[in-house]
Amino acid sequence: MNDLSAKIGIIGGGQLGKMMILEAKKMGFYVTVLDPTKECPCHSICDEHIIADFNDREAIRLLASKSDVITYEFEHIDYKELTLLENEGKKVYPTAGSLKIIQNKLTQKMTLREGGIPAGDFIQTESVEDIYKAGEDFGYPLILKTRTGGYDGKGNALIKDKKDVYDAFISLGGGKIQLMAEKFVNFTMEISVLACRGVSGETKVYPVGDNRHIDNILHKTVVPADISEETTKKAMELAEKVMNVFDGVGMFCVEMFVTDKNEVLVNEVAPRPHNSGHYSIEGCAVSQFENHIRAITNLPLGSTELLRPTVMVNLLGEEGKSGKAIIEGAFDALKIDGVKLHIYGKKNTSPKRKMGHITVTAESVSTALKHAEEAFSKIKITAE
Amino acid sequence: MNDLSAKIGIIGGGQLGKMMILEAKKMGFYVTVLDPTKECPCHSICDEHIIADFNDREAIRLLASKSDVITYEFEHIDYKELTLLENEGKKVYPTAGSLKIIQNKLTQKMTLREGGIPAGDFIQTESVEDIYKAGEDFGYPLILKTRTGGYDGKGNALIKDKKDVYDAFISLGGGKIQLMAEKFVNFTMEISVLACRGVSGETKVYPVGDNRHIDNILHKTVVPADISEETTKKAMELAEKVMNVFDGVGMFCVEMFVTDKNEVLVNEVAPRPHNSGHYSIEGCAVSQFENHIRAITNLPLGSTELLRPTVMVNLLGEEGKSGKAIIEGAFDALKIDGVKLHIYGKKNTSPKRKMGHITVTAESVSTALKHAEEAFSKIKITAE
User: Fold this and answer.
1) Residues of A at the B interface (Cβ-Cβ below 8 Å)?
2) A351 near A297, Cβ under 8 Å?
3) CA B8, CA B69: separation in Å to the nearest integer?
4) Is the torsion defined by CA of A233, A235, A236, A240 positive or negative?
5) What is the mean pLDDT of residues B209-235?
6) Cα(B82)–Cα(A173) distance, rounded to whole angstroms?
């Protein structure tokens, strides 16, 4: 048995899984995917596809029986199942222990705090009274969050004023779901730093990306972020520290805020390759997906060097369009210098669904931005 | 129907097909492959795999019925079958007409000569007497070639002296196979230039690669080749001219000789992505495989700019080892700066079989060469 003969199992067959597989296949790995959707993005490029629910215990065990190492493309998985596999000697990366802490945003933040990582003020809230109390302590606006299960702004509520507390509490389950409150950070930029850590502790940190959101969904990532050398250094050091605090193995994304005082605060950590790291496929010597595969199969990590300024723009399903997806404008977009097109192969589109992305490399950030905006304006994702 | 919804059919499921599919899948294309080997490199990453012989007429028609455009990864296909498909309105790229001329090395050379492209002296030989005559006209050493079917030195014989003519004639079929003779070119370097041409005639030419062979099989390609600007320009212009002469659509590889007088002569043309173009995956803005897919689906071609000096080294099966392949040394190879590993996923190895390749990028050719040699020395492809 050698490293390249390791069989990889991935829980989740979406675009992140797909981009992992495209790298894994380049190196000849055997990959099995678990995903309930027959025509998911991974379906046609994996060796085996187990069509079952993500929390189907039998299916997870079947995946494990076909794999030497298990990984996942999203963090909303029952860590207890993964712990059982680990107890039976199966390799799971990131580990069930890392996942358990990170998937609960309260324990995530507590661990960051204990690790000496600046992450802003937060408090667990068990009742609506606790939220009022948090408002008094932190002031308004206040962020209310579900501790688990949120993504792309879902599971978050911005409370602008004391009188909105109750509505926010109700909108996030009214006590049925565990919540936490966070002090609002008046940031000047949202950045993310991807980092990869091997089984041995070897860590590689990617350049800093400047993330621009629209309606709480990532719209684009610009790399390198327009921040000082000092702030860049601080952010990259924080990311490396986060990897150690969580004992991470594989790719992690550390989302951070930069404040007007050039403080850098960790906002959230994702224990997986991340949308804001898609730029690395064309932008870096070794992409987040290849390094993830290298890390979980215990191969040496590759260089995260930025080759050229790079801009990534997400392609979302158009508003008001649902059904079998049609991608329009590829010809016009690809006519523009430095444009690469990634289409995930989801059969159906719906409003704001992540259907693909554009990456543009150029000699300067401003050119890359200009070309990215031009290309983005050409593409429409509609339905039949 | 839009460009990205085109379904692609590929004849041949080897490593070239695999690397085409990895690019096609990134853009969301649907791909069907025709290959007789169930566990061929393309098997696990294509949408459909028709397991049948390359010349199985029914299978080719089935492939066509599932595809909007047909391409191929090797040139030894019956062009008549492809002509039939074209006559029925199916798109085949490169066209059956291009393939017909190119797959016969005599008509290939005649077409080059008619197109005003320097390609060295050659003559068709119908008998052993014709070969003696060629020896008198061109002198010795003389190259004897089968007109069709050769690759990696197979189908070629170097005749050092008049007394070896008969043996060479016998070794290449003794009259059963059509032959041609070529004047030996005393070259100082074998180079190749990849070029891609779209349906509209748009052409992109790649940087010049310096090819080093061992036992007539490509060992490594070094890019950029260490030749003068003038010779580089000449070679790139020749490649573009070749694309027009053959009315090429898709990726072509133009192999050339550079003589001690800095003449550039075309040796052979391959109507497909080529081993000597593998460096473009990491070395260029857009790889030969992505541009091939763009060309045959009528999308705009991408930049062929060299990002950094790049060296590609082939990984062949070890001598004396046949059977289920084992790849050793990946860990040590990937520890070296700038190394990327491509393993084709062929189940079985045999001596000199192309099993994978290494690509190394670096700030200078000399560093890339040093790291490539180091990485190459680590990897062994043996059998169970």
Assistant:
1) 2-5, 18, 22, 25-28, 30-31, 44-47, 285-286, 294, 298-300, 302-303, 307-308, 326-328, 330-331, 334-335, 337-345, 356, 361
2) no
3) 5
4) positive
5) 96
6) 63
Distance (Å) from the C-alpha of residue B256 to the closest C-alpha of chain A? 29
- Closest by CA to B192, choosing from B255, B112, B240, is B255
User: Percentages helix, strand, coil for chain B, rounded to the nearest 5?
Assistant: 35, 30, 35
Residue B49 binned pLDDT confidence (cut-offs 50, 70, 90): very high
A58: Cα within 13 Å, side-chain hemisphere: 2
Contact list in B for residue A308 (CB cut-off 8 A) is 307
Cβ atoms of B382 and B318 closer than 8 Å: yes
Closest residue on chain B to A18 (Cα): B26
Q: Which of A3, A4, A324 to mutate to probe the B interface, most B CBs <10 Å?
A: A4
Instruction: Kindly state the tokens that stand for A178.
Output: 């565990």
pTM of the model: 0.96
Q: For residues A15 and A241, give the distance between their C-alpha atoms in angstroms, rounded to a whole number.
A: 28
Q: Which of A2, A28, A335 sits opposite B344 (nearest CB)?
A: A28
pLDDT band per the 50, 70, 90 thresholds, residue A157: very high
Verify whether the Cβ–Cβ distance A307 to B307 is below 8 Å: yes
**What is the interface size between A and B, counted as CB pairs within 8 Å?**
109
Q: Is the pLDDT of residue B1 over 80?
A: no
Per-residue pLDDT, A2: 52
Cα diameter, chain A:
63
Q: Do the bridges between strand B323-328 and strand B380-383 make them parallel or antiparallel, or are there none, so unpaired?
A: antiparallel
- Helices then strands (H, E): number in chain A? 12, 21
Integer Cα distance of A140 and B240 in angstroms: 66
Residue A1: pLDDT band (50, 70, 90) is very low
